[in-house]
Amino acid sequence: MSTRRNIGKKERFFDYTLLFVVIFLSLFGLIMIYSSSSVTSGDTYLGRQLLTTSLGMGALFAVIILRPYHFYGRFAYLGLIGSVVVLMLLLTPLGITRNGATRWLNLGALSFQPAELCKLGMILYLAVTFDKLGKRVSDIKLVLMHVVLPTVIMAGLIYVISSNLSSAIIVVLIAFCMMFVSTPGYRKYLLIILAAAVILVAVVFFIDRQGSAGGFRGMRILAWLHPEQYSDTSAYQTVQGLYAIGSGGITGKGLGQGMQKLGYIPEAQNDMIFSIICEELGLFGAIVIIALFGILIWRCIFIASNARDRFGALLVVGVMSHIAIQVFLNIAVVTNMIPNTGISLPFISYGGTSVVFLLAEVGLVLNVARNIELKDMVQK
Amino acid sequence: MEHDTNKNEMRPKKRQTSLDKFGKNKFTIKMKKKLVALGFLVLLAFVGLVVRLVFLVRDNGDSYKKQVLSQREYASAVIPYKRGSIIDCNGTVLAASEKVYNVIIDSKAILVKEEYLEPTVSAVSSVFGVDAKELREYITSHPTSQYYVCKRKQSYDAMNAFEMLASGENGVNVKGVWFETEYQRSYPQGSLACDVIGFTTGMDGDGMYGLEQFYNDVLSGKNGREYGYLDEDLNLERTTVAAENGYTLVTTVDANIQSIVERHLKKFNDTYANAHREGLGAYNTGCIIMNPNSGEVLAMASYPNYDLNTPYDLSSVYTQEQIEEMTQEEYTTELNALWKNFCITSTFEPGSTGKPFTVATGLETGAMNGGETYYCPGYLTIGDYQIHCHNRLGDGQVGVEKAISSSCNVALMQMAQSIGKKNFLKYSKAFNFGLKTNIDLSGEARTESLVFNEKTMFETELATASFGQGYNVTMIQLISAYCSLINGGNYYQPHVVKQILNSDGAVVKNIEPRLLKQTISESTSDAVRAYCNAVVEDGTGKAAKPTGYTMGGKTGTAEMVPRNQGNYVVSFIGYVPADNPEVVIYVVVDRANQAKQDNSKLASVLVHDIMTEVLPYMGINMTEVVTDAEKEKVQESQTGYLYEEKEAAEREAAEREAAEREAAEREAAENGNGNNGTTQEQPKREVKIDPETGYAIDPLTHELLDPETGEAIDPNSSFMERINPEE
User: Fold this and answer.
1) How many CB atoms neighbour CB B566 within 10 A?
2) Which of A15, B405, B492, B573 would you call most buried, defined as having the most Cβ atoms within 10 angstroms of its Cβ?
3) Is the pLDDT of residue A28 over 90?
4) How many domains does chain A have?
5) Is ipTM > 0.95 here?
């Protein structure tokens, strides 16, 4: 411990770039939440988000300062089991049902989304597991048992208990990214991706041919394929979002000057917030935000590459994947590249649980960065 | 990196079934490469997003901008227009729309706080008389309702009272009540000129009958709109497109003349109601007063009438029990009968009022020169029929004037024979019989199929048509044609509206008298007028003459189809003054409530009563010497319409009427005696007197006759008989 501290004192590395990007995104998120919700709801949403962002910032610094990241690795199994238990709590009267889905736990004044905890638990567990696998990461049996099986169980539980398909998909994709980095070989991953693509295309084609099959998820696929036909019903939100993006032009209407948040895009401060960014700040603002996420990803790759060990590196890869996947899926939904599904934009969308856990995860990344010995850093 | 990897590889290999202790393994170079690959994929994905965004903005930017702008309208409300008024020629309001208020309940707003409910419910129920329990129930059972019309058509006063209450000290907790404006049609004169005006129905307020229907488009305006939207700078822009109010109709009707007419029609009915049978004084009584020199209708009324404010109420005609006994269908039929304008919708055979037209045709076509004389033995045999004169005993030798003044059917039939079918029909058409007058009122009857044409008119038809039987007319047709007979031959289109004003009172359109055609020459007109003057002077229409005025006219007694039922339409059409007519009046009594209906005096007396009041009101000067006694009576009657207290006036008028009628009858009797010697040069035929009854006996049919007039005693006796009824 003492040596580490000494090392830390003398040659401590700290990724200020990443920290500032995250702080900037969080503050920008607060501004955009205020802009998109103030007309209809006053400062209610800003107030709540301010509270949770502060909480998340506290968590971020606590995670950095408390202990070196190995400390958290000890809680990997406990965390995984704990997150499943919390997820199960949704089945008790503590669960809050909104719009037909039970995704929140009632914690008195606050509500809590267990799926976010599950994502963190999963990242921690997989980082530890891949580290422990050591050289045997190429052992398919071991990988199947220690990685694929827990992932599938976790994703299945999330989907079944909270009927939250997007969180389940995110968990699977995070695991897939971590596995891709950890295990050797490219061809099998290429095959998996191709197979998944073929299945997806087939499903979409089938639903489109059928016209109206498959409950609300089928409807969302149809709305995605033919937004004009469903612009008054299931594609309403999507089409209004596209109007916002298109009408923003290159430089936008100016912060706070958007029209679409005035009731046309329901709950604009949530998943559709990126369309408001496009409307008010234009293509320019949108590209800057995407670029900031790009910097964030780049810093994560840098930190992971220089991490002291595999555990630290995979922790960073997991968090990075988590952020990258959510950013991509959210913007893809807003621009109608994929069917509508509820995925928030990291650090910017309104949502307490998400922001607290994301900031905590960034705390983990910064913790890993802080423990890089400067002498180990590679000149690239 | 190299160093790390080497270090890792140099480690001793341990085969373990369990996993390694964590934190001991390195992030290998291969993993780093794959991480870079993953980063590259993420970068690719992000670039894909940017490309998508760029395309969205480039390809759809403009159209989406428009979409967003077009969606911006945020609120809109209809501003109702005000339907135009209908006023008489002096500006008296006959129909007007008043602003009324609908009470709207917003349950959601009331239920925001518990303490709002009770004060609001009690305020609404106390001011508008709504049942508090029902209202409370509605609000609590429809908590999300924001628009519930609790009470319709409340007055401004009631609305104001509520607003005062709500803004007062006790009204702090009165919430969620607001008002919606609307217009309600009201007819301040009640039933006055109901046939002319018509009424409006339902929520849309579309006109039904009369002017309301005919001029519906003119009276209707256009709803306005109030809407707001957010402009580029998010400012709320309010735009109001004002409602366009409807136009006001200025009618030619004079409410004073109209009320005189209606008062007398009512009195007539009150006098004869239940006299011979259960019911009104006559099935229908109609009266039109027109200016013959412009076609302007000064008054148009019929009885029974109804209150325009309550058009669905039959109580003016039937008792409550009778109404309750009616089936829905009967009720509707009765309502329609009540609503229709008798003066333009009902058709009937004109009877002797058609005679001046025959004479005019004869003179105009040259078939007659006015110097002819005809012999009337009391009947004429035409084809298979014997067609009687009113005087079954025969008028003897009659000239043209006498033929009109004593209404001799036989003379007229002979005239028609000399005119011939072709010319008779030609002039009938010239007088507009069978054609609509196109008066600006809705519901005018089509009579095309009710008049003769080349194919339907034969010898008998021509004969009966000469004295106004066999074809049908409407009142408005007859009076319009008659005006042309006596005004020099000018046929004016009858009309009721003379001016259209916009809501600010500016003139939109003046409707000038419309001269449609010259029916007859001026000289013919002069001759016809002379004959008609004789009718009032010393003929059948003496009873119609108002004291102090010269008058011309013609009585009419028409037997209805089916014949021999004793059903008659009696009428009188006349004009004042006799030499230069300024006003024409036409009164029709349809089946008077009398045992013997064929008494044209019923109509003549009504004309006398009406004209006695109307003429002084119109400022038409007396032209004849009037005795002091007569003057006194007339003065009494002239003040009748001035009295505000109607009841007093009516009582007075009733007394006056009785006295006057007596005087008129006396006068008529005297005149009759005086003229007897000069006009009846031809000796009367020998008449057998029935010894039992003292009545004369018709030598032809052996019916009993009145020895004075020669008319049949039997009320069911018809003017025509088949010679051999058995065949």
Assistant:
1) 18
2) B573
3) yes
4) 1
5) no
